[in-house]
Structure formats: C-alpha cells, structure tokens
Amino acid sequence: FAASAAEVQLAKTGVAKAALVVAKDADKAARFGAADLKWHLGRMTGADFRIITDARPPERFEIRVGRTNRSDAKETFENQQFKVKIAKDFIELVGRDARDYGKFRYCPCEVHGLEGENWPGLYEEQGSMYAVYEFLEKQVGVIWADAYDTGTICPSKPTLEVETGYRLY
Prior knowledge:
With 169 residues, this protein is an alpha/beta fold. It has two helices and 13 strands.
C-alpha cells in the first residue's frame, strides 16, 4: 500500500465500528471469508462484528466481502485474483470466486480449532477469501503459524485502525 495519512477505525475500545457485508445471494467463498473475518477481528478486538447482507440499508462503515450491490469492483478477475481496497468510508475485499452457493457450517472451537462442513474446496476459486486473509495478515497483523487456533496469533488491539489504500493481487 502506498503511504497514506488517512486511517479508518474498525474498533474502538472493544466496540465494533464496522459491519461486515455480503451479498444477499453471496457465494460460499464470500460467506466463509466474512465468517472468518468476524472471528479474527473479534478475537483481536473483543468486539462483535455483525455480518449483514446488502439487502439491508448501508451502514456508516462497511467491510464488504465478495461482490455486493454496493461494490465498486469493476474488475474481471483472473483465477484466484483479488483486491483489497481500504477507503475512508468502506473496505472492499473481493476476488474471483467459484459460483458455489451451497451451504457450509463454520464453527470456531477454542479446543479443536476450526470445525465445519462443506467449506470451499482447496482448488476452487476463492479470491474473496484470499482478500480477507491478505487484509488480516498485512493490515492488522494476524499470523498463522499452523492450522489450529493455537497457531493463530491475533495481536490484542481493542482499538483497531488501518490505513487507506488499494492493491490488486
């Protein structure tokens, strides 16, 4: 990201200042990305980030995961390509996803790590999920040392701010 003086606040003293937004008919990769983003941000800040659909009225500050009817993403992404855009009034985490609208179960468990069923496949297009992970790693400092909760390092940041910028991957 280019150096920028503008910062946006996602949480303040453990209170969420943003809503996570997915399309009403979001694909599985976007829904999983939003669920994983909610878990990581909550673990870092102690805040409860709500996941809403784009069928609801816009929130004051939104983190949009996947293509939504409020998206400004006009790109035609290549396989697994994605973008991370942090603007003064929204964040957009979007990429090329498989057209899989099936159900999945997401259940973070402190003892066993993430448990669930029917997650996006390892080789399926899941650019929106990659955008979420890029954002979590590069912008807020999450480190994944192994595949379990015990290997996920989420710095404690009750007040979380990120700098504005844009990057296409």
